[in-house]
Amino acid sequence: FCPGPNCKLVFRSKEPKAKRTICEQCKTTFCFKCGTEYHAPTDCPTIKKWLTKCADDSETANYISAHTKDCPKCHICIEKNGGCNHMQCYNCKHDFCWMCLGDWKSHGSEYYECSRYKENPNIVNESVHAQAREALKKYLHYYERWENHSKSLKLEAETLEKIKSRINAKVMNSSGTWIDWQYLVDAASLLAKCRYTLQYTYPYAYYLEPGPRKELFEYQQAQLEAEIENLSWKIERAETTDRGDLENQIDIAEKRRMTLLKDFLHVKLFLCD
What we know:
By secondary structure, this protein is mainly alpha-helical. Helix content is about 50%, strand content about 5%. It has 8 helices and 6 strands. It has helices at about 45-55, 105, 110-115, 130-170, 180-200, 200-205, 210-235, 245-265; strands at about 20, 30, 70, 75-80, 85-90, 95. The protein has a two-stranded antiparallel sheet with strand order 1-2. It has a two-stranded antiparallel sheet with strand order 3-4. The radius of gyration is 20 Å and the shape is globular. Its EC number is 2.3.2.31.
């Protein structure tokens, strides 16, 4: 059955595999095998564990839900009203990363450090309480990024609607046709697809055992995140962004997404989406 609200459509498949399914009636997107939201590259058992953990620890993570942080330079309170994590303080014009508050000038080469969690190699020798604190710290690292990308998706959906409204206004004023401006809608749609994949890389990384495979995954995750934020920054400034530059960024972001899925997705049926 479709998990969409008040939808009674029934789906049938020759093989009950994990694959992206879209209900043609209510437009709900879900995993055919487990019925949760589509979750590549994370597999069904892992995403169920993650969602259960998030529900159990929701009170602990409530403080993360705030939309405001202080500028790391002038310390004025800033509200995040867009999906992009490349922030510019309206007061002092300082550019920084919303997630780690690092200076954006050097952040381009440090995405690997921003997105990955640094394990404490000596934690096994610490007290039970210390190990519990470390476990919570690790969870909050991944949960904060998971939740942040979820919020960015909602904010960028609002940006897409604003783009469509601006395009309608331009068409009405004879400033081109919808075909002339379609690339902006395509860019915003691709951004949503890439960020959705990125959001689900964090449960995958949380449960991944330390080692070369995790290091490679976190490297590719950071590469994807960097290109997504570049694309988001350009879309939010679409009026001043060169069309060729934006289309090139679309291509780069999608290639990063597909590279990560091809290298780490066990179920190849996901690759068509």
